[in-house]
Amino acid sequence: MSYRHYDEIKSLGLNIAFYRKKKGVSQLKLAELVNISRTHMSRIETADCAVSLDLLFDICSALEIEPKTLFDFK
Prior knowledge:
mainly alpha
């Protein structure tokens, strides 16, 4: 995929994956919690698609983290 902010979208996906794994949640379980397919979750984590703010907030709620946490790119 080609996005103007690909690097940031990639970092966001990596952070989602990091906090998901830190919480011990599978892609499938997180996808179920936010009402999307596991494939869609995988695409978000690998920057194969962008994520809406609504879905991003749902992911943060499911992972019990603040949205700003996902934007702390290292």
